[in-house]
Each structure stands twice: as structure tokens, then as C-alpha cells.
Amino acid sequence: MMEIxxxxxxxxxxxxxxxxxxxxxxxxxxxxxxxxxIQSRMGPPWYQCYVDIGKLLYKQVIIPxxxxxxxxxxxxxxxxAGISLAGGIIWMxxxxxxxxxxxxxxVVMYLLVLPSLALIIGGAASRNPFSSVGASRxxxxxxxxxxxxxxxxxxxxxxxxxxxxADIITYQIQNGAMFWSVSGIVAVAVFLICxxxxxxxxxxxxxxxxxxxxxxxxxxxxxxxxxIFKLTNAMMLLALPLFLITLFLGGIVVSSIKGILFLILKYxxxxxxxxxxxxxxxxxxxxxxxxxxxxxxxxxxxxSVILTVLGV
Amino acid sequence: MxxxxxxxxxxxxxSAPLAWILKGGLREWFSVAVTLCVLILSVFLFxxxxxxxxxxxxxxxxxxxxxxxxxxxxxxxIITLISFLGFLATLYSTRYMTQSRGLNKYYCxxxxxxGSMNGTVLSGDLFSMFLLWEAMTMAAFFLVIFDNTIESIxxxxxxxxxxxxxxxxxxxxxIAIYFQEGTxxxxxxxxxxITVSSNFRHMLLLFFLLGTGVxxxxxxxxxxxxxxxxxxxxxxxxxxxxxxxKVGIYMMIRIFCHIFSPVFxxxxxxxxxxxxxxxxxxxxxxxxxxxxxxLAYHSVSQIGYIVLGIGTGVSVGIAGGLFHLLNHAMFKxxxxxxxxxxxxxxxxxxxxxxGGLARAMPITFITCSIAALxxxxxxxFNGFVSKWMIYIGxxxxxTTDGSAFTVVWLAAxxxxxxxxxxxxxxxxxxxFLTVPEKPQGVKEVSxxxxxxxxxxxxxxxxxxxxxxxxxxxxxxxPVVPGVSFSGYWQPGLATLLLIVAFIAGGIIFIAGxxxxxxxxxxxxGGEEFEPEMGVSPEGFYHTIKNAxxxxxxxxxxxxxxxxxxxxxxxxxxxxxxxxSSIHTGILSxxxxxxxxxxxxxxxxxxxxx
Amino acid sequence: MFSILxxxxxxxxxxxxxxxxxxxxxxxxxxNALTPFYDxxxxxxxxxxxxxxxxxxxxxxxxxxQVCPRLKTLYKSVPEPKLVFAIxxxxxxxxxxxDSYNLVGGVDKVxxxxxxxxxxxxxxxxxLFGVAVALGLVDKKVVAEYxxxxxxxxxxxxxxxxxxxxxx
Lengths: 312, 609, 168
What we know:
Chain A is mainly alpha-helical. Chain A is built from 13 helices and one strand. Chain C has a five-stranded parallel beta sheet with strand order 2-1-3-4-5.
């Protein structure tokens, strides 16, 4: 019984759903505050994102008439389940480096597809033409960024010849972070661009375009279901940079104060890069985004793989 | 001498004429009973084979050619699969085939098909295997053209010609082996350890690859598959996609892994062809609007995964390929049966005619969604486990050979998985979730039709969640020795945690229902909501289809420039056109040809070449 | 627990802006109010693209007959609890077109309004002040006054409000 309860505790409370959710919402506030500072204004107070989720829980849930209730209601839950398990795995393999928690790198990559799939099913199940346009565009975006994403993750696999997280982190502890090589720098750059697309941030927030298609895939969601989607977004904001840090930037060390400070520093640097790009770029069209990902970004990813195989 | 394995072939074959003679409902239930008998027999044979494989001679044709029966673990797994899917498809077709003419032919052919497939897998020598292979092709041909439309006849002829070409190559290779080694018995050949040393042996392997590859559906000899599988009736499509292509893979495993010693260059070619099949199959599937043609292209793509797994050459990769073979039979059979249910109700194969069927056909919706998630490799379903094993196999291969191509295969395989998800999202959206153009008055299909679907969906879930306990332990790992997993995946715990997180989300949802949940019409900018608004299935991937690179390729594929059958057809037509210009019909020209021929013959004879 | 969520409602209001036959003057001032100079985000106010996500509707313009049914659909699409702000003189009572033949005159004749922000157009500071009053941050400065016309012999036009306006 204890063997089942312990993983459930890890998943739900620490460091899974609750911990990642609360921290993720805090960093969402950091995002809004830094955007405000860029735009020379005061931003929202520090409790703003928590208050947003609370308010959404207070609102009425409206289900579109004629839609399939099962898919409409379960779509956000699928996304939440996927990201909490993926976030749990990423935290746990860093905290306890010798024991693999549930899965390895391939499992995390497949679990990270689930939030996008949840958006698509939710958009398809709301009986709204704008949502279906959003769902079509979101799937096209997944098609676009998935190939460069896979290729740059393989640079880590190629160097360590293994897909288990423990081996990758041990390699980085022994040989220095993978970032300190030409292939590593290119891989991190491509990873950051794909991360922007995965988080649905400008310039790639095409599926959730507010002014174009009435909120895109989330057009018909309100109340608690929308709160679950926003919570999933916040958790992705925390989990994806941690994934990057684990693979390329040396892993997370939580046993010493110096380790925790370094972790916060690395995370904040990545977050500020993302925010800077987000607040200074307009939104791309879907065909421009497709050409961008399957053109220059894919080229950079292939170059990084070639450099890794050559050993640079 | 144990006669029971041969019963697996004799029972269906001898019952086939009885099925022709019987009338009406009796005929249908008789066929179901026969297939159930075959299934029970194969399940009983399973424990017998685990300890020692059954191998004995049956009939002596000449001194060196003896028809033998060989039943080892690999064969019994495939035979169980054939019998299982055969039983479910026969049960399904009792309610699906509602036309009244020609049904006696249908059940007779179905039983012959199942019997010949069992026989192909059961035979222990290349001679009887080839005979039963041809019988399987004939039975499948008549089943494909069962509907008697122009499209199905053309598809059937294309299938037949390509199959026979492949079989011709395979026959040449079998005869060459007989003359070189002096025996056609597969076990004897395997024990001799034939190495691929000479160019002649390489050519033999190429011919075998062509022969079995046509049946399996590998690029570039797959072109009969997207025409033949949609043209057949849905339960037959499920059998064709579910098990007949697996028989081709089974022969490929026998030849590349048992008879000939594994050779590195051929593994490379298998990996290359497998990866090409994955990507090309799914890119063609994305733009289809015919539901069954879409599923047929996905068959090509998933066979690419199996061939890729076999081509890795490491045990975990081959085991992954074998497990994917089992899984693919499950979810592809399920997909064809559920889309068949939709076709049965909607009387159309075009995706644009469907819509909003989730309310009307809930069981079909849920089983089809489970199959779509499984085929895309979403954890924790069964497709993910087999694909994960194939990836681990590729990483292990990269560890030993370090070539950059292995990275390319790995990237192609994972990208193919994302593309599969894309294609099935479109299918589920267009069939079940979108707004229909006209009101649908359809109901759910009958019990005999949804029982096979529910059984297969349940197996998809079970094979995924308890993957280590049931399918791998019993079906896959005993067949392939020495499997070592260098990755980590705990499906049981992962499923439990996913369900826990799901429930946590549900609690958040319920906590937020302070005011009652309301239902209201969708918001379209305040206008009246008309069903014609929304994205149609053709327009779902409008962006991808119109990107310049893909547009050019799709245009060429439309004109069938890549189709080997059409290229061959054009060559034959041009050649015979050139030859037919000789037949002018004028008597004096013919006399001139005769005299010229005589002169040349006399000259040759005189000069004495 | 629910009272905490109720307090959350006041700290984060998401607005959806709609134009019911306005001249766009008030719309421009609303967009002004949401720019970085006036910084509505410090109150938690955010502009959203779908009425399902919104808490407050900002309606401008004297309502014309064609807009009436659409405005009603929009009001029904916003989930409870909701606030409606009528911004500008036209939305408050019809402005100078209170008696025109094709305008209903005032948003409160179509949907229930919680707060009125008069002005033609109201300055962005006035809009923000109105929202702050709604959130309870400051006290109200003006009280509603109902004016009656004196000294005008008769109404120039006498037109009954058509029943079909309320049909849908």
C-alpha cells in the first residue's frame, strides 16, 4: 500500500500537481510583471494569477448545446493529467538521481504531447466553427515544431547513448553541461524556439489568437474548465524550462543552497529570454509559421545533430 | 503423430463447401462456429508448444521435397492472432453483410482465406508454404472483388498482378535455394547457417524481399494496398490489414532471421525501407478524405514500424517489432470494424458526409477513439509500448554502430508518430465531433457488430496497461531470446497516476460548479449558428497541403508518377504498342516478314554462330 | 471557502468590449484605457477575445434595431456572475439620438446594466474611475438624476417601439 501511496503523494502534492501549479502560477505573474516593466507601466500585484484561477472557479460553466459532453469535459482533464505526470517525472529524476521514477526520455516526450492534444480535442468538441479552425491550426503547429524538437532532444541522446534521465544527468555532472559545445548552443536555441510554440506564446500563439478567432480552441470554455486549461499552461511554463535545464544545462541540484540558487538563476534567464521575445514580436500566420519551422529551424536542428555526431 | 495442428487448416477448408450449400442464418452461424472452433484449437495448442516445438513430416512428394508441419512459438502466436481476428470478423460480418446475393460465396471464401493463412504460417517447408501463399492470394482476390463494382475489380486486378509478380520472384528464389542446398525444409536450412557471401545470395535475398514485401506492403511495392483494402467489404478489410500483411512479415522474419544468417547491409536496407514507409504512408494519409483509404495508408505506415523494428537487429528491436505486429492487428482491425459500422449506417465512405456521430453511436465513438489514441502511440495504450521498444532498439543499435543514419531512422519514427496523431485527429473530428450538415437519424449498430469492437478495445487497453505481465511475458519475450531493456517504463504505475491526476482535475471541476452548469448555443459573433460553418475535412490540413514542397509531391502522386504498377503498365502498353505496329493486316507484309526470317535463319545456320 | 472566491472576483475582472452602433469614439477611449499609459492591468483587468471568458461587458453606442438580437445573444453567452457597463452617453440613454427612428436609445432597454459611465466620449481616466467605483475601490462622485422635459409643447415624433425588437 505504501508503494502506491508514495508515488501518488509525489504526483499530487510535491513535486507534482500542487507544487508545480503554485510555482507555475507565480512565474506566470513574473511574466506579466516583466512585460509590464518593458511597457513602462506597473503590472498586476503578486497575487494576480492565483486570484484569476479563483475567480474562474467562481464562474458558471457553460457547455455548448449539441456538443459531445464527454469529450468537452474530459479534454482539459487529459491535458492536466499529462502535464502533471511529465512534470512529476522531470522533478523526481532530478531529486533522486539513482532511481528512475516512471519513465525515461521517450515517455516524457510523448506525455508532453498530451496538453496540445487536449486543446485540439477541446476545440473539436465545442460545436463552434472558430474552435475547429483553432484546432486545425494547433494540429498544424504540432506538425511543424515536432520534428525540430525531436531532433534537438536526440543530441542529448547521441552524446550519452542512453535514454534514461539518470545517465544524461550523470554525463553532465562528469563532463560539464552539454551547453558548452557548439552543437549544444545550437540545440538550446532551437529548443527555445520550439518551447515558445509549445507554450502557445507569441509569436506562435496562433491557435489561441484572441482577436482573430474569438479565443481559438478555448472559445467555448468558461469557468472551472477554463481554470484547468490555465493551470495546465502555468505548469507547462514551469516544466518545459526544467526539461531544458535537465537535458542541456546541467540538471537540477536540490541538495545544496548553491544548487537551488543556480537553478533559480538558470530558470530566470530562460524565462526572461522567453518574455523578451514574447513582448516584442507580432503573431505569425499559420503558413508563415509552418515555413519557418520546416525551413530555418529544421535546418538548424539538422546542423546540431550533424555537429553532435561529428563530436563537436 | 499429432494431427491437431493440421486440423487448423483442414477444418476451415473442408467447411467452406458446406458454407456454400447452407442457406440463410444457418450458414452464418455455422461459419461463426467453425472459426470459434479454430480459435479454441489454437488456444489449446499454445501450452503444448511452449516447451517443445512441434515438427514432423506430413507427406513425401519426392525424395528431397517433403511437406512438413512446423509449429514453434512464433507460428503459434501468429496463428492465434489469425484465428482470433478471423472469429471476430466473421461474427461482425453476420450483421454487416446485409445484401442477399452471393453471401454463400462470401462465407465460403472467408473460411478458405482463414484456412490458407493458417496453413501458410503452419508449414515447415518452402514448397507447401508457397502453395498455400498462392491459395491465400486467390482467396483474398475473390474477396476484394466481392462488391462487383468497377473500382473494386480494378483494385482486385492490381492486387493480383502485383502479388503474382512478387510471388514469381519468390518462386525463383525458392527454386534457386533448392538447387543450391538440396532441400526445401526450413528447419534444415536454418540449422545449416547459410551466410550471405556471394552476389547470388544477395540477389536471392532481394527476391525474397520483393516477394514478401508485396504482401506486407512496404514502400515502394505497396501501391496495391490503398486501392484493395478500401474496395473490400469492411470485415474483409479488417482481416486483410490485420492479418494478411502480418503473414508477409512472418515470412520476412523467417527468411531474414532464421534461414539466412543476419547480415548488416540488409538490416540497413530494411531500416531504410521501414522509415520511408512510415513517413510516406502517413503523409499520403493526411490528405485523404476517403475513410478506408486513410486507414489503408496508415497500414503501410505501421508496417514500416514493424519492418524498422526487425531491421534493427537487436533483440529488443525485433521484440518491439513483433509486439507492434500484435498491437497493430488489434487496433487496425478495430479501426476498420468501427469505420465499417459508420459506413454501414451512413452508406458512404467520404468523410465529408459524416459528422456529429458521437451522440448517435457512442460505443463506436469510444472504441474508435481508443484505437486512434493507441495507433498514435499515446501512453498508456499498447501502441506506445511497442513503439517505445522499437526506439530503445534503435538507440542500442546506435550505441554499437554509431552511424548517423540510425538517428535519421529514429527521428523519422518519432515524427511519424506525431503525424499519425494529426491524421487521426482529423478522422475523429470529421466523423464524430463536427457539426453535421443535415440531421442524422442514425442509431448504434447491433450487438453482433459492437461486441468484436469492444473486445478489441479492451485488449488494446489491457495490452498497454499490463504490458509487462500479459502480452510481453506470454507472447513476445519467449519468441525472441536475450531481450535487454535499456530504458524505463512502468505502465501500471503510470496509468494509476494518470487516473489520479484526472480525478484531481475532476475535483477541481466539481468544486467550481457553484452555480448550475448551463447549456447554451455556441457563440459565433452573435450571428445565427448555421451548420455549414466550420472546417470541413478537406480543409483541416489546408495549410500543409498547400505548402509548396508538399504541393508538388502531392501533385505528382495524384498523377500516379510514383506508382510502380502504373509505371509498369505504361511500359507494357508502350512496348506492346510498338510491337503491334508490326501487325498491319496486309498479307504481303506478313509474307515479307516470313521470308526475311527464313533468310536470317539460313544465314545463321550456314555461317554457324 | 466560497467567500474567498467571491473576493477573488473583484480583484480580477476580464472585460469583453462590444460596439452596438457607436460612432467609435467611445471604443477608441476604451482601447486607450487598456493601453500601457493608463495601465488597467494593475486592477486585474484584461481584455479577452471570447464572451465566455468575460466577467464584464463594456457596451458602447446607442443600440440600433439590427444589433438588438445580437446584443441579447451576447448577454446570454457571458457566464454568471456578470457585470454590464454602459459607456458613453449614447449607451447610457441614447445621447443626442435618444428619439431617432432606428435606434432604441440606451443599452438598458435591451439588457440589464449595472454601471453607467457617461461622457461623449468619456476620458480613459473616467472609464477607469467608473470601473474602480464598481470594484468598490472609491466612492461614487455623482448620483443618477432623472430629467423630465419642460416647456416643449409636444413630442416631434411619436413612434411606438415595435414589438419585433423583443421577439428573438
